[in-house]
């Protein structure tokens, strides 16, 4: 089988960059100075780009430029910098205020009816109560003087992931919403969707997160899935009416020239698939020094710029960072995200196409419904043509031989499929076009069970222990959820029992971790029940939006019998 790939015509737009604000540029200077002054220990670069100005930028810059400096690299003293920051800035996170959600009740009516074990029930109510801790509203100051903040204005309240992630995040919000629905907090769930629709109406796509330095990229596109789940519970036609134009715009964004890659197979049929592609070619403001350090391996400026784009595109994928995006799994500077057609991204877009068709039908827009059913069918064929590996029984990411550089076409080769085991290889099962095929589910189930990804405390992200957080031995709530839900919805008895087995392992590790540390964690170590995960470029975080959401979703689906133990 030979396939030919071509990037969009002339690849116009592939050097696209969305400009940042003067405030972000200035805060990066403050961040670099702070690192020199305070040193590496406990230094979180994100804190500095999250600061808000107390007065205008030019006055603050003037004061900063006037600070006494010593030595070759112009170091500011600890005392001077502390006084300067306290005088001219409000702290990171001050631009959000705590918000008391009106639809929160300590024990909602009909909450988790299948959870019979009193220990598990009382823990689930504690997890439910965390929604109150994580609810925020953008402060009036941001709405009145947006130029003093990197926080972006939003019309409604938000639920934040937690800890250093003190703003709304795109793909996290899907699992937050699933948890809110289990908690019967329908209005809070709708408010999150309203904010993300506001992003699309303002910027043309949903941003990675709610900060000025995130405007150059999106994140896994799950807005349609959020609307679908809320509609499923509430039958809110007005929400669908409000969402549909934004979803059409988002779909156009993910199929625009920078994202779309066309692949021609041996029969001359064209298949369109999408890739991650950030509109940015500089160090990320929230991680400026580290990006520069890795880029220092490149001598040529255009190579540095390409590397910065690959880093930002990996951040757009939500998997920041993973060997999945590296040509050489031991070399971070070999990131080549834009040269990879990812299985999961195309599954999310397929789901978006199905959801748009469903919403169009709800609203009586027959021609939109028909064209999106066709688009979904075409993408399903593309996913199977390019990603499916029959021998392995998995869908594998595909690497473009030409890289991100534009050429007319290239020939598909089996060796360009990434044969490493990643949890993303099984994400297609999440969508009914795949999990409704019983023979396929059985094949994939066998492949999954022998993949090496299934461990005592959940599904590993990969088999490669690279020190990056989206690799072994970390397990992440969203990946557990999509794979479990895919097996569950197939309706096969053995698949349901596998799904429940994984959900039970995941609930246990979350429970034991919570009892040990008093917190829910961002990620977990799938080898050790009750241990949170590590690796990556920042300290492990707690809170935690999507972990809370997945635990509540699993408990709602599977319950917990009175006689089942909850310990490891």
UniProtKB/TrEMBL annotation:
<dbReference type="Pfam" id="PF01204">
    <property type="entry name" value="Trehalase"/>
</dbReference>
<protein>
    <recommendedName>
        <fullName>Trehalase</fullName>
        <ecNumber>3.2.1.28</ecNumber>
    </recommendedName>
</protein>
<comment type="similarity">
    <text>Belongs to the glycosyl hydrolase 37 family.</text>
</comment>
<dbReference type="InterPro" id="IPR001661">
    <property type="entry name" value="Glyco_hydro_37"/>
</dbReference>
<dbReference type="InterPro" id="IPR012341">
    <property type="entry name" value="6hp_glycosidase-like_sf"/>
</dbReference>
<dbReference type="GO" id="GO:0005993">
    <property type="term" value="P:trehalose catabolic process"/>
</dbReference>
<dbReference type="InterPro" id="IPR018232">
    <property type="entry name" value="Glyco_hydro_37_CS"/>
</dbReference>
<dbReference type="GO" id="GO:0004555">
    <property type="term" value="F:alpha,alpha-trehalase activity"/>
</dbReference>
<dbReference type="InterPro" id="IPR008928">
    <property type="entry name" value="6-hairpin_glycosidase_sf"/>
</dbReference>
<keyword id="KW-0326">Glycosidase</keyword>
<keyword id="KW-0378">Hydrolase</keyword>
């Amino acid at each position: 089988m030979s396939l030919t790939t071509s990037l969009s015509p002339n690849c116009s737009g592939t050097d696209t960059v969305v400009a940042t604000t003067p405030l972000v540029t200035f805060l990066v200077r403050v961040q670099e100075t702070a690192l020199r002054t305070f040193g590496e220990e406990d230094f979180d670069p994100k804190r500095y780009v999250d600061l808000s100005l107390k007065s205008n930028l030019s006055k603050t810059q003037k004061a900063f430029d006037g600070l006494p400096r010593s030595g070759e690299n112009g170091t500011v003293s600890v005392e001077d910098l502390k006084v300067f920051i306290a005088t001219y800035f409000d702290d990171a996170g001050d631009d959000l205020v705590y918000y008391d959600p009106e639809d929160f009740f300590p024990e909602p009516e009909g909450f988790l009816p299948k959870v019979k074990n009193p220990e598990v029930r009382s823990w689930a109510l504690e997890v439910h109560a965390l929604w109150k801790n994580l609810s925020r509203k953008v402060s009036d100051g941001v709405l009145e003087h947006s130029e003093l903040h990197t926080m972006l204005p939003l019309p409604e309240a938000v639920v934040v992931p937690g800890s250093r992630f003190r703003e709304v995040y795109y793909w996290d919000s899907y699992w937050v919403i699933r948890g809110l629905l289990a908690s019967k907090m329908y209005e809070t769930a709708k408010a999150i969707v309203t904010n993300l629709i506001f992003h699309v109406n303002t910027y043309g796509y949903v941003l990675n997160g709610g900060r000025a330095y995130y405007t150059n990229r999106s994140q896994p596109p799950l807005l349609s899935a959020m609307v679908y789940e809320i509609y499923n519970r509430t039958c809110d036609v007005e929400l669908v009416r409000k969402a549909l134009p934004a979803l059409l715009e988002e779909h156009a964004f993910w199929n625009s020239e920078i994202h779309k890659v066309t692949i021609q197979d041996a029969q001359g049929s064209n298949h369109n698939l999408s890739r991650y592609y950030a509109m940015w070619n500089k160090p990320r403001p929230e991680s400026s020094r580290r990006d520069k350090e890795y880029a220092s391996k490149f001598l040529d400026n255009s190579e540095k710029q390409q590397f910065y784009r690959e880093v930002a595109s990996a951040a757009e994928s939500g998997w920041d960072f993973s060997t999945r995006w590296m040509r050489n799994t031991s070399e971070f500077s070999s990131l080549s995200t834009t040269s990879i057609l990812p299985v999961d991204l195309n599954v999310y877009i397929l789901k978006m196409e199905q959801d748009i068709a469903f919403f169009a039908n709800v609203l009586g827009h027959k021609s939109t419904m028909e064209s999106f059913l066709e688009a979904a069918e075409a993408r399903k064929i593309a996913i199977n043509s390019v990603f499916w590996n029959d021998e392995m029984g998995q869908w594998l990411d595909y690497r473009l031989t030409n890289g991100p550089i534009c050429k007319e076409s290239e020939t598909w080769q089996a060796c360009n499929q990434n044969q490493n085991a990643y949890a993303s290889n099984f994400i297609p099962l999440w969508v009914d076009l795949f999990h409704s095929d019983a023979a396929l589910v059985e094949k994939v189930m066998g492949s999954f069970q022998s993949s090496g990804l299934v461990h005592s405390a959940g599904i590993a992200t990969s088999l490669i222990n690279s020190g990056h957080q989206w690799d072994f031995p970390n397990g992440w709530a969203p990946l557990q959820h999509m794979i479990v839900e895919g097996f569950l919805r197939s309706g096969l008895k053995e698949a349901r029992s596998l799904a429940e087995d994984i959900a039970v392992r995941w609930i246990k590790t979350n429970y034991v971790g919570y009892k040990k540390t008093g917190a829910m964690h961002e990620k977990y170590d799938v080898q050790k029940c009750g241990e949170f995960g590590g690796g990556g470029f920042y300290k492990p975080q707690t809170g935690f939006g999507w972990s809370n959401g997945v635990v509540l979703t699993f408990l709602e689906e599977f319950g917990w019998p009175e006689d089942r133990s909850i310990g490891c």
